[in-house]
Design brief:
The complex is a heterodimer of chains A (about 400) and B (about 290). Chain A is built from 14 helices and 15 strands. With about 400 residues, chain A is α/β, with parallel strands linked by helices. A 7-stranded mixed β-sheet of chain A has the order 7-6-8-9-10-14-15, with helices on both faces. In chain A, β1, α2 and β2 form a beta-alpha-beta unit. In chain A, α2 crosses α12, α2 runs parallel beside α13 and α5 crosses α6. By secondary structure, chain B is mostly helical. In chain B, strands 1-2 form a two-stranded antiparallel ribbon. The N and C termini of chain B lie far apart (about 45 Å). The mean pLDDT of chain B is about 90. Classes of the chains: A alpha/beta (about 400), B mainly alpha (about 290).
Chain lengths: ~400, ~290
């Protein structure tokens, strides 16, 4: 290579290398929030809704000039539904990407792994999916916040309603992992308190697609209500097989939760008449102004209404921003203290608040039922809202029960 | 369980039969390919998944489940032919690990490719209207579609065994799996036979996939666990043995089903316990011949 051409190429290469550095320097002005979630695998649809909810919040905040004059930047990572991967991604987000705050997590056991990392690094973590342990000792750390409902709250609200309205002889099928087991425990406890019985409860491995071997004995036991704790993609396989074995005709089917992405995937014929709890449904836009704001922003961006879990992420990103504005600092400890000192907020469905002892968010939830196809208005109108259950700390375990003095 | 009746038990055996049938279809393909070429095809689960996806789109475009049921396995079979010709063939004569690593890598590539092309969210496939209901078997209501799966599998297995036992090509395939050198010496082109067998084996995986789709849903990871169970079936039956694959597939189906009835927590692990027990007593599997793996 000639000396001249070497110089020319060399300079060009150096300029090329320098460019990303410039971009990075500008990027340094943003406030970074790390967001791990299982975008691949059986919960992919829920993780996508969460990411989209977070994006809507980020853009809404940035459109108004950001916080403390700085824009928010949310960095998404795939945790593959594996605790080890979730931990690794979180570590990278904190150490390499310099994220001061972590929001995210979907599967309960992956939330724990994310939480371990944020605790170690002393960063604020707002978990946006269900778990009992995340807001209880020994898992909850001083900077662990929990925006979502949890199995105890959902279970107590939904199980009591089912026992009072649908029948008291139950069979429970549950996914054999943290969230499934917690639900099985709470539902069993509540139905007994209501004077009912659990005829049987069968665990199955999470991510299963073949339930037929579970069904004959359920038919034979003749429960009045079948409680299906079959999250994510399992739900569609389970309900389909339950229907094909005739269970839907012989008993009521109820679940802890409905999720919009799976209602869409499974369709109204699968979900008609199936009862569940839900943290948010877009039809609330008719009655709640904050819901109307969120739903219309989301619709504008994605051409479809938001789901339920996306709303948790939307709210959590807003809480990080609110905390930064209150604390006037981009610092986990200061933000956590500011949120606890000003616990009440309302981003998408009415008033919520943080309980000081466990940093758990209390909020309304709703009992819903799959709507008949003939009554649907539009493609996404899957649910009848049956009843609102008002936010109450009584629905959760007490601070003392959760290990806080 | 005090309330266990004969009717429940019969229903349980029937559900186990359907589980077994899908496993048999997968295990037979694996076993054919292994028996003739000593290739451990780890991509078999991904081909099962491709069968379901091809089926889904064929049904969407042609509106005919029946057409899709025939064409989707053929498409997977063609994919298998290409796979043998261009990927596996260069590795013949090497150690058994090389094609294993290749097919394992390919299975990851296929799952990722499907996620990229058709998205991370699963698809829902319904049985055709003619097979949508349930029938009264006397002891239980059973989904018609699941009976149909049993029927299709039996027909395919009978046809396959007749082909292997009664036709000249079948004779060459059987001879080739015993002694490839001698078959070559007699002047037969084993390359074409290997190609054919790879095609048939992979087409059977595709058939299992489209049959399973309406029961279990269609998603990129659907082959990940079932390929392990299929390997268990092949090992229990004896590597390379077709009767072994059939018997072991039906046995494993019942093991899963009956363990689910009595102790659902152990349904997954029981499959491996059975495998371990069989291997302790018969190291080459139920119908296996010693020495194939060396």
């Amino acid at each position: 290579m000639h000396r001249r051409s070497f110089l020319v190429t060399g300079t060009a290469a150096a300029a090329g290398l320098a460019f990303p550095a410039v971009l990075r320097a500008q990027g340094g002005d943003t406030i970074k929030i790390g967001f791990p979630g299982p975008t691949t695998g059986p919960f992919g649809a829920l993780a996508k809704d969460q990411q989209q909810g977070a994006v809507v919040a980020m853009e809404e905040i940035n459109a108004k000039g950001g916080v403390l004059g700085r824009k928010l930047e949310v960095l998404f990572r795939d945790d593959q539904l594996k605790p080890a991967v979730g931990a690794q991604r979180t570590k990278e987000l904190i150490e390499n990407e310099k994220c001061e705050f972590i929001v995210g997590g979907l599967a309960a056991h992956v939330q724990m792994a994310i939480n371990e990392q944020t605790k170690k690094a002393g960063k604020l973590f707002i978990s946006v999916s269900q778990s009992d342990e995340i807001s209880a000792k020994p898992d909850a750390g001083p900077l662990t916040f929990h925006e979502a409902l949890n199995p105890t709250i959902t279970g107590r609200a939904v199980a009591a309603w089912i026992a009072q309205n649908l029948g008291k002889k139950w069979w429970i099928v549950y996914a054999d992992y943290a969230w499934g087991k917690q639900n099985n425990a709470v539902f069993s406890e509540v139905v007994k308190k209501q004077g009912g019985t659990v005829l049987g409860s069968t665990p199955y491995p999470l991510g299963n697609a073949e339930f037929s071997a579970h069904l004959p004995k359920i038919v034979a036991a003749k429960p009045e209500v079948l409680v299906a704790v079959t999250p994510g993609a399992d739900d569609i396989a389970f309900l389909k097989q339950a229907a094909s074995f005739g269970l839907k005709k012989e008993m009521k089917i109820a679940q802890p939760l409905h999720w919009l992405p799976y209602l869409k995937e499974g369709g109204p014929d699968l979900y008609a008449d199936i009862y569940a709890g839900i943290n948010f449904s877009w039809q609330l836009e008719d009655s709640i102004p904050e819901a109307k704001n969120y739903v219309s922003l989301y619709r504008k961006k994605y051409n479809e209404p938001p789901g339920d879990y996306g709303a948790y992420a939307y709210s959590a990103i807003h809480e990080v921003a609110r905390g930064i504005a209150l604390a006037k600092a981009v610092n986990s400890d200061a933000v956590a203290a500011a949120l606890i000192a000003n616990p009440a907020y309302n981003h998408y469905k009415g008033k919520q608040w943080w309980r000081a002892c466990d940093r758990k968010s209390f909020q309304d939830l709703w009992i819903v039922k799959g709507r008949d196809r003939s009554k649907m208005k539009g493609d996404w109108d899957f649910l009848d809202i049956v009843q609102k259950v008002a936010a109450s700390e009584e629905l959760d375990r007490t601070c003392k029960e959760k290990g806080f003095a | 369980m005090a309330d266990l009746t004969l009717a429940t038990l019969a229903a349980q055996v029937f559900t186990g039969l359907v589980l077994g049938m899908i496993l048999v279809l997968l295990a037979i393909g694996l076993s054919l390919i292994f028996g003739l070429m000593t290739v451990v095809n780890f991509a078999h689960g991904s081909l099962y998944m491709l069968g379901a996806y091809f089926g889904f789109f064929l049904i969407a475009y042609t509106k005919s489940f029946w057409l899709a049921l025939v064409v989707a396995p053929m498409l997977v079979g063609v994919f298998g032919l290409l796979m043998e010709r261009f990927l596996v063939r260069p590795l013949y004569g090497r150690s058994i690990d090389d094609p294993l690593l290749l097919t394992f890598g390919l299975s990851l590539v296929l799952v990722e490719a499907v996620r990229l092309v058709w998205g991370k969210i699963g698809l829902t496939l319904d049985p055709p209207p003619a097979l949508a209901g349930a029938v009264n078997l006397g002891f239980t209501y059973f989904p018609l579609y699941r009976l149909f799966v049993i029927g299709v599998t039996v027909v395919v297995l009978v046809a396959l065994l007749l082909f292997l036992e009664k036709t000249n090509v079948g004779l060459i395939i059987r001879a080739g799996s015993r002694d490839p050198v001698m078959v070559r010496a007699l002047g037969f082109d084993l390359g074409r036979v290997w190609l054919l067998v790879f095609g048939i084996g992979t087409a059977l995986a595709g058939l299992a996939g489209i049959l399973a789709g309406p029961m279990r849903g269609v998603y990129a990871e659907m082959g990940v666990t079932i390929v392990i169970e299929s390997f268990v079936v092949v090992v229990v039956g004896g590597m390379g043995s077709l009767p072994g694959a059939i018997v072991a597939g039906l046995v494993i189906g019942q093991v899963v089903s009956l363990t689910t009835l009595f102790a659902p927590k152990f349904a997954e692990i029981m499959v491996f316990i059975v495998m371990a027990l069989v291997l302790l007593v018969r190291p080459s599997g139920l119908f296996g011949e010693a020495g194939l793996m060396e």
